[in-house]
Write a structure and sequence with these properties.
This protein is mainly β. It has a single domain, classed as Lipocalin (Beta Barrel), CATH 2.40.128. Helices cover 7% and strands 64% of the residues. The protein contains 2 helices and 10 strands. It has a 10-stranded antiparallel β-barrel. A hairpin with a 3-residue loop joins strand 3 and strand 4.
Amino acid sequence: MMLLLATMLFAAVPEAAESSTVALLAGGSPKGQIAIGVRGGYPSFGVQAQVGFTGGWTGISLFDTQLFRRNWVGMGVGKRWLEGRVGVLSGEALLGVEEQSGIFPSFGPSGLIRLKMAHPGRILVPYLELSTRVTLLGQTTVTEKLDGTSERTWVADARCVPSATLGLGWAIRPWIGIDVGFDWMYDTTATVSIPGIHLGLGVGW
């Protein structure tokens, strides 16, 4: 088993190729490259898959959950805007749905925008990720009248969740890497914001 892992570690993507760690943390995949990243920690867990297209565009699919009580799934596109030895800057936009269970269940369409910045080191990749997720919600109120009838009213509402992640990635090989990050998330419908931490694993080919 160890021999198999060692063989895989020193094979696969050539050293000259951009690492999957940079593609996931900095945003944007080279044409034809596929990358899959998994993040696990408190309070979030997420899985992202992306593939590079022509023109610098990247197709993205994402699943994210907070303690498996608020789940988000969506698809979208990303594009690398700036790229150089100093750093990489990219933007992503995704559309999806959000579902929350528990005492206050909810479900609604949602949109996510992200700004990613990273220094594309050959081994270490410091990065910063800023994002905002907006979910359209609705609240239904039923009013019982004295004559026995009821009146149902619906009021539109929205939940906005800005977040930030500061972390460091390690490109073990061009096709595999890990990262650790500190997460901050603010929920406009909550009174307390709890910081978090995660560990990530990314692979690509």
